[in-house]
């Protein structure tokens, strides 16, 4: 049994998982593991090398020759792909769409899950994704399932991309999010779903500060007050 505590935050694209996980990690002094960034790094490499995303064998070969490290420099997450910093290249809409498609492959998930589980045995961590509470950290001390309406999620993603100069239309983002939801929920390996012991939090009408406060409150009740020792 690990001496460290872990918090799993799952949910669909655009529900605010990464934003909330980062802020909660800062408050609690936990290490934030951005699993989505790790999958995005592989997707980015597939795009860069013009690999057909339907060619599972080619992607398996890619995975066997790839190394992904997450580091923090001055409090900012840096994603290193084979020692190259790709942090600023992995947040595009194209990379996001490819990520959803390659994440169904067994070797992609196997490689990254092993690394994620190893990290959870080295420090107190908060990890966000789509299968953290059900597959990656099934014994997490606290499991949160963040959700929000498709309209709200698309609006948030539109603002995020627009601030970066990406002019993707709102309706296009809504369609893409619907497709990602379907792909994530229907993949054969570790599909997106709420863990039986996860607490659902609908963020549609909540501010970031309100969601963070809610998660901290759940942390205090589940881990601090009850002395939860799963892990």
UniProtKB/TrEMBL annotation:
SUPFAM superfamilies hit by this protein: P-loop containing nucleoside triphosphate hydrolases (SSF52540)
Binding site residues for ATP: 11-19
Example GO biological process: nucleobase-containing small molecule interconversion
Cell compartments where the protein resides: Cytoplasm
GO cellular component, one term: cytosol
Pfam families xrefs: Cytidylate_kin (PF02224)
Sorted UniProt keywords: ATP-binding, Cytoplasm, Kinase, Nucleotide-binding, Transferase
Reaction catalysis annotation: dCMP + ATP = dCDP + ADP; CMP + ATP = CDP + ADP
Family assignment from sequence similarity: Belongs to the cytidylate kinase family. Type 1 subfamily.
Protein name from the UniProt record: Cytidylate kinase
Species: Natranaerovirga hydrolytica
């Amino acid at each position: 049994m690990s001496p460290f505590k872990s918090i799993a935050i799952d949910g669909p694209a655009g529900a605010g998982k990464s934003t909330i996980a980062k802020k909660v990690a800062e408050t609690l002094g936990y290490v934030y593991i951005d699993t989505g960034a790790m999958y995005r790094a592989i997707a980015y490499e597939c795009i860069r090398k013009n690999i057909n995303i339907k060619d599972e064998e080619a992607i398996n070969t890619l995975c066997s020759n790839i190394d992904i490290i997450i580091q923090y420099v001055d409090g900012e997450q840096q994603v290193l792909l084979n020692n190259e910093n790709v942090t600023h290249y992995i947040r595009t809409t194209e990379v996001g769409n490819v990520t959803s498609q390659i994440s169904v492959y067994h070797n992609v998930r196997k490689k990254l899950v092993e690394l994620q589980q190893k990290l959870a045995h080295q420090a107190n961590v908060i990890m966000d994704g789509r299968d953290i509470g059900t597959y990656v950290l099934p014994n997490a001390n606290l499991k949160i399932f963040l959700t929000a309406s498709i309209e709200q999620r698309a609006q948030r993603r539109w603002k995020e991309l627009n601030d970066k100069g990406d002019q993707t239309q709102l309706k296009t983002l809504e369609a893409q999010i619907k497709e990602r939801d379907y792909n994530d929920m229907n993949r054969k390996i570790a599909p997106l779903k709420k863990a039986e012991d996860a607490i659902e939090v609908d963020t549609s009408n909540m501010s970031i500060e309100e969601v963070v406060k809610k998660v901290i409150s759940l942390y205090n009740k589940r881990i601090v007050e009850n002395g939860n020792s799963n892990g």
